[in-house]
Write a structure and sequence with these properties.
heterodimer, A: 217 residues, mainly alpha, extended, B: 439 residues, alpha+beta, six-stranded mixed beta sheet, 11 strands, 49% helix, 13% strand
């Protein structure tokens, strides 16, 4: 923020370069044909940048009003952490998109592309306040994002189990009766319960020692 | 189970091909499957009973037993120099609850690799790799956690004897939390404020023998033990460690980047950011570890949601799989997307880290600050969202998710440990914020 404010945006590191870039006046999600993921990324960049500058302005402003640096920092820290979260979530979205873009296999690319769309819509709904508060996004665009989310939930449904099978965890590694690959859950739940150390005897020593004498009194 | 089989028949892609995307190539994914198949044939490496039915001591004993078998047979199962294969082997055999040498591999050896001089590596690293000694990394203290500047443990240089005198002046100075410090390790890389001729040179790392190599008894001047049970991860003996004017040779200061000469002359590292590298390394790898744990829980919950039938969407139809409910999909699918996103972002971060390491060797440290800041944020956001996702997965399993038969509560407990180790999340976010404000 300090570099951007002082006109030295060219000195920004590559992972924060978006802080110095110009952005559209409003989000173009659902406003341009074939906008797709790019418009989502621009929206995430806009809100991450705006929050960073807002938090920094609060921090600098407090110092200009005479607060000591450490006090100003502490009084801005919730807003600063919000900026950090948005910066990080932006990187995750971008890394996901870059990866999907690199894939050649069409069926894999399509399945992951569906997941990526679900991800950006879910993420954007989660942070929508930041995009709404300066009018960068409208409530109709938000409705579009919501519809897209439900569309991709449905689209992913037939692939759900296989998207997780793909991680190829053995039953030995998962150590879960409920998550068995063969799906034989109920009979194995019963088998598992029978292995409980409490089931080694029909009457526990705690019954003989305490509960029975109490009941017999 | 026909319901689960039906799910697999509707997939639009090949899961082996997807595994290759997840694990960074077809060869890596195939090796994972080969290792899994090989392990299936070695019963000594399987859990002798479900872990939730064991006491903490039994789990530690079981883990040490498997670790010993692994040490003997590792090279017939994996290429032991391949970190990816070793990680998978450990997950399969030892699991996520830890093991007596968990920190030996992920902290002790990397610390010696990064911070010990060539001579020191010849002396200790070789022995560590051969598992002749067991080590850990002891930085965190009871009173100030990982806040380096306020650590209270001191290492005061005695020019007369050419020794450092390690001391923990009060209870709050005790090293507290380091994994495997309590009972398993006989060495530790210890972080202490270094004093020479009354001047504080800040935190530095020292190779410190803790226990007699023959008897495993604590050495005189050392107070050491286990800190007690935790929310999860209980096979790890997180420990406490105190020093009572405990003396180590000058040459036990890890001297790859900084040096202290016999007369007490201090030679500082070539650039300050060098100390970031260990933190960036661990945090980069944490992301893919978190992605794995999130997918464990989602695997369990999604498979179960395809098996469990409850209620009707259409009153004229039979009971449906709970996975048909939009609420269940909304609970699970966005986290499936996040698990993939974390895995890919983690892989990209590891690549960036490797690039930075290369550039650092030629003196270019420009990207390190960028990456250090980013990994602070990533570690924080990813551990937080992973915890959220695992908890959603647990609730998606209804009451059975609460049973240890699901194993989700253990996965949750282990995963959210990441919210506080390697830097507490709020502190990490503020670290990134400092960088954003500067930018």
């Amino acid at each position: 923020a300090a570099l951007v404010k002082s006109g030295k945006a060219s000195q920004l590191g590559p992972l924060v370069a978006y802080l110095g870039a110009r952005s559209e006046p409003t989000s173009l999600i659902d406003r341009v044909p074939n906008g797709g993921i790019t418009e989502y990324i621009k929206t995430f960049q806009h809100i991450a940048k705006r929050q960073t500058l807002k938090a920094a302005n609060k921090f600098f402003g407090l110092m200009e009003n005479g607060e000591k640096r450490e006090i100003a920092w502490n009084k801005s820290s919730v807003e600063l952490n919000r900026a950090s979260r948005l910066h990080t979530r932006l990187f995750i979205v971008e890394a996901f998109a870059r990866r999907v873009n690199e894939i050649g296999d069409i069926t894999i690319k399509e399945a992951l592309s569906d997941l990526l769309h679900l991800h950006v819509n879910y993420e954007l709904l989660d942070v929508a306040t930041y995009a709404l508060e300066d009018g960068f996004m409208s409530s109709t665009q938000l409705d579009y994002v919501r519809d897209q989310l439900y569309f991709y939930l449905q689209k992913i449904r037939p692939n759900a189990v296989s998207l997780l099978d793909s991680w190829e965890f053995s039953d030995r590694e998962l150590r879960s009766v409920l998550g068995r690959r063969d799906g034989h859950v109920y009979e194995n739940l019963f088998k598992w319960a029978k292995e409980s150390p409490l089931n080694k005897t029909d009457v526990l020593p705690s019954v003989d020692t305490y509960l029975k004498p109490m009941m017999e009194k | 189970n026909p319901d689960l089989t039906a799910e697999r028949l509707t997939a639009t892609f090949d899961t082996h091909a997807m595994a290759a995307q997840i694990y960074g190539g077809e060869m890596r994914a195939r090796r994972r499957r080969e290792i899994t198949a090989k392990l299936a044939e070695i019963p000594e490496l399987h859990d002798s009973m479900p872990l939730p039915y064991m006491t903490r001591e039994e789990k530690i004993m079981e883990s040490a037993r498997k670790l010993t078998v692994l040490t003997q047979r590792m090279s017939e199962i994996i290429d032991p120099t391949d970190a990816g294969e070793l990680y998978h082997l450990n997950n399969e055999v030892l699991g996520i609850e830890g093991n007596p040498m968990a920190l030996h591999g992920v902290m002790f050896i990397p610390a010696l690799n990064a911070q010990a001089s060539d001579e020191q590596q010849a002396k200790w690293l070789i022995r560590a790799l051969r598992r002749e000694i067991i080590g850990t990394y002891a930085q965190t203290e009871m009173g100030h956690g990982t806040n380096l500047q306020n650590l209270e443990t001191t290492a005061t240089y005695d020019i007369g004897t050419q020794e450092f005198v390690l001391h923990t002046p009060k209870i709050t100075a005790l090293k507290w939390w380091p994994g495997n410090l309590g009972k398993s390790s006989n060495y530790a890389v210890v972080v202490a404020h270094m004093y020479i001729k009354g001047k504080n040179f800040g935190p530095h790392t020292f190779m410190v023998p803790l226990r007699d190599e023959k008897t495993h008894k604590p050495l005189p001047g050392i107070t050491i033990g286990d800190i007690g049970p935790k929310m999860a991860y209980n096979i790890v003996d997180n420990g406490f460690l105190g020093f009572n004017n405990y003396r180590i040779p000058r040459t036990n200061l890890l001297m790859r980047h900084t040096k202290v000469e016999a007369d007490g002359t201090y030679i500082k590292p070539p650039h300050a950011k060098i100390n970031y590298s260990a933190m960036v390394h661990v945090r980069s790898y944490m992301l893919t570890g978190q992605a794995i744990m999130l997918s464990y829980a989602l695997n369990i919950a999604t498979r179960y949601s395809a098996v469990r039938r409850q209620g009707q969407i259409d009153k004229n139809e039979p009971e449906v799989k709970v996975l048909e409910y939009q609420t269940q999909q909304h609970r699970l699918f966005p986290f499936i997307a996040r698990a993939y996103a974390f895995q890919f972002a983690g892989a990209e971060t590891v690549k960036l880290y490797e690039r930075v390491l290369k550039e650092m060797k030629s003196g270019n440290v420009s990207l390190m600050a960028d990456l250090h800041a980013l990994t602070s944020g990533l570690k924080s956001v990813v551990t937080h969202q992973t915890g959220e996702g695992i908890e959603q997965a647990r609730m998606a399993c209804g009451g059975h998710g609460y049973s240890m038969a699901s194993y989700i509560s253990e996965i949750y407990g282990v995963a959210i440990g990441g919210c506080t180790y390697e830097g507490e999340n709020m502190v990490m976010l503020l670290q990134l914020a400092r960088y954003l404000v500067k930018s």
